[in-house]
């Protein structure tokens, strides 16, 4: 039997061009991130040095950027960090995925931003060659590493005059590719440094062409806490003004110590466009992660814009989003709780101010409470609804009237509200979301019931005239009904308050739909008129309302005018009066006058004028 030798394990080969292409096209949002990665490495190196030399060297360690001086120029990023030995350079810089920023258990080392061991490669998106010169704080000779986009590298120790004057720390040099000069020259580098490193905890400066410096780092006032936050209150607000583009309605302090997350939520003083998602500005250890990230706050918190800095949440490899893990979930829940607390406290301490807030965001809040149990539980009570006894907050409504009646349309509301007794008001559910909001009430408030109020029910609830008057009433209904038959309206007589309203025009949903279809048919072009005609035939009530779908003029038996009318035997007087009452009731009910109605009004007025003139 012949034995075959076991296959020997061989390392993968990496095609660097392919990896860089992958990073540039699919991982990072674009070549701009090269500076973020360089500054981040420099910042981590300064932190690493601070661990090794806790007493410092007497001057603050910092990061200095020397932009490229136009085409053919070289950009240099210099740090006073821990530096690298020749062995480290060979190992760390030349191995894709190797990082010094993970501990023995391969966990990210606390306080350091890097972790994946790929950041430096992003420089190949703007250059063909990376030169790193470094002197380690551990004391070896300085070293130079040259990495090429073709996947080769070289390392050499610097000696003699070349080594002289090289301080502890690292310098990275990139020669700009012609197409990318704009990202490495003064304006480009300064802009990128300001974007990414503005709140970094290590000073970052950018050299001007004339040799002076711009310091880009500043205190992240939005993340201040305690007394410092109180001292900086005006700066915190000013930051919000810049961010939001207007004076924020309020500021909410955010702090989740468990994940090292601190910041501020700015309450928007205007309603964001419908469907806009909240977009937070997220920093990781002071380095900008994203200025419009929508995964930090719960979806319902659309009315704030948050800006935070975190040290305990994990970035994705692109460093442009956070990893969706338990820590992020906890943070999101706690940030949401802070916003919720703000709403509740404002309601308790400054209800007038809360009313202003609700007025600004009411439409969206109403839209959201319908689907979002959490938001509903704390915001529903502050929303306002129109009722037949005026505008009430939901809280006032359910406290005073636990049995809530509502209409589905504004038309129905106008009619039902005219008949609703003050102790049984009705809510106008006709505006966008309002009926849905009312239907939500029993889910949030114990003991609250809701019921739809219809025109038919409102009519049924009215008192009929006393038995003794029945014959007179029946005759009036009959005669008036004949007069209004031409406009498809029935007449009923009931008693209701106030007595000085002689008549109400009542049309249920079916009747209103039939009327609207009829009106649409009259103004529609021939083709659509045919379609609408078919729809009317198929729909209950038909084109000219009939049966239960017919609108009704409800005459008020408590009105002296109606009683006088019932007593007259003059059919002409009765007809004209009924016609005028009908038109008056239509107008009071905000119903548009159809051509038939206008003809009726004109006829009645003409008769009256002729009668008066003949006297
Ligand atoms: N300026 C520097 N000073 C000292 N060491 C550095 C510097 N820049 C890079 N290094 C070393 O090179 C290693 C690889 O850097 P690289 O940017 O590729 O990855 P990383 O920072 O570890 O992780 P990430 O991909 O998350 O940025 C680092 O872990 C670090 O040890």
Automatic annotation (TrEMBL):
Coiled-coil regions, chain positions: none
Please list the GO terms describing molecular function. ATP binding; ATP hydrolysis activity; ATP-dependent protein folding chaperone; unfolded protein binding
Recite the UniProt keywords alphabetically. ATP-binding, Chaperone, Nucleotide-binding
Short name of any one Pfam family annotated for the protein: HATPase_c_3
Reading the lineage from the top rank, the first entry is Bacteria
InterPro entries attached here? HATPase_C_sf (IPR036890), Hsp90_fam (IPR001404), Hsp90_N (IPR020575), Ribosomal_Su5_D2-typ_SF (IPR020568)
Gene3D superfamilies given in the database record: 3.30.230.80, Histidine kinase-like ATPase, C-terminal domain (3.30.565.10)
Q: Which residues bind ATP?
A: 37, 41, 79, 170
Name the PANTHER family on file. HEAT SHOCK PROTEIN 90 FAMILY MEMBER
Q: Name the family.
A: Belongs to the heat shock protein 90 family.
What is this protein's name? Answer: Chaperone protein HtpG
């Amino acid at each position: 039997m012949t034995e075959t030798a076991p296959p020997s394990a061989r390392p993968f080969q990496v095609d660097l061009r392919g990896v860089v292409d992958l990073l540039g096209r699919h991982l990072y949002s674009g070549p701009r991130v090269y500076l973020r990665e360089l500054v981040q490495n420099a910042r981590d190196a300064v932190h690493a040095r601070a661990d090794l030399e806790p007493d410092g060297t007497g001057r603050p360690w910092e990061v200095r950027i020397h932009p490229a001086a136009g085409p053919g120029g070289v950009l240099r990023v210099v740090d006073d960090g821990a530096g690298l030995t020749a062995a480290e350079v060979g190992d760390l810089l030349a191995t894709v995925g190797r990082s010094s920023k993970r501990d023995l258990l391969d966990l990210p080392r606390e306080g350091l931003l890097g972790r994946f061991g790929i950041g430096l490669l992003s420089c190949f998106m703007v250059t063909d060659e990376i030169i790193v010169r470094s002197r380690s704080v551990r004391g070896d000779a300085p070293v130079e590493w040259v990495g090429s986009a073709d996947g080769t590298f070289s390392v050499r120790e610097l000696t003699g005059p070349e080594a002289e004057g090289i301080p502890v720390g690292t310098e990275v040099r990139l020669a700009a590719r012609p197409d990318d000069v704009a990202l490495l020259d003064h304006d480009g580098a300064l802009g990128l440094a300001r974007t990414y490193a503005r709140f970094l905890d290590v000073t970052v400066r950018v050299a001007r062409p004339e040799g002076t410096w711009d310091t880009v780092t500043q205190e992240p006032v939005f993340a201040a806490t305690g007394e410092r936050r109180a001292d900086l209150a005006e700066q915190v607000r000013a930051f919000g003004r810049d961010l939001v583009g207007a004076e924020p309605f309020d500021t909410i302090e955010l702090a989740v110590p468990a994940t090292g997350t601190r910041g501020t939520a700015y309450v928007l003083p205007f309603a964001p466009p419908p469907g806009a998602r909240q977009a937070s500005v997220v920093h990781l250890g002071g380095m900008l992660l994203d200025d419009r990230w929508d995964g930090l706050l719960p979806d319902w918190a659309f009315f704030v814009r948050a800006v935070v800095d975190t040290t305990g949440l994990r970035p994705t490899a692109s460093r442009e989003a956070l990893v969706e893990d338990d820590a992020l979930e906890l943070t999101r829940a706690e940030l949401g709780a802070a916003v919720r607390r703000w709403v509740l406290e404002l309601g308790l301490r400054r209800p007038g101010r809360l009313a202003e807030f609700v007025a600004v965001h009411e439409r969206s809040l109403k839209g959201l409470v319908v689907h979002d149990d959490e938001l509903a539980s704390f915001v529903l009570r502050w929303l306002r609804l129109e009722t037949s006894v005026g505008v009430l907050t939901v809280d006032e409504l359910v406290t005073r009237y636990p049995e809530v009646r509502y209409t589905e349309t504004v038309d129905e509301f106008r009619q039902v509200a005219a008949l609703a007794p003050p102790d049984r008001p009705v809510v106008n559910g006709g505006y966008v979301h309002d009926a849905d909001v009312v239907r939500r009430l029993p889910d949030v408030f114990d003991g609250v019931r809701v019921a739809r109020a219809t025109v038919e029910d409102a009519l049924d609830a009215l008192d009929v005239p006393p038995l003794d008057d029945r014959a007179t009433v029946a005759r009036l209904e009959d005669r008036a009904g004949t007069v209004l038959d031409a406009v498809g309206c029935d007449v009923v007589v009931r008693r209701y308050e106030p007595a000085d309203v002689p008549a109400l025009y009542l049309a249920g949903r079916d009747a209103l739909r039939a009327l609207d279809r009829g009106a649409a048919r009259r103004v529609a072009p021939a083709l659509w008129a045919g379609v609408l005609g078919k729809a009317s035939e198929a729909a209950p009530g038909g084109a000219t309302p009939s049966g239960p779908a017919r609108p009704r003029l409800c005459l008020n038996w408590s009105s002296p005018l109606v009683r006088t009318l019932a007593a007259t035997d003059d059919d002409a007087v009765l007809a004209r009066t009924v016609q005028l009452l009908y038109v008056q009731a239509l107008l009071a009910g905000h119903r548009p006058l159809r051509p038939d109605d206008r003809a009726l009004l004109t006829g009645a007025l003409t008769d009256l004028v002729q009668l008066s003139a003949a006297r």
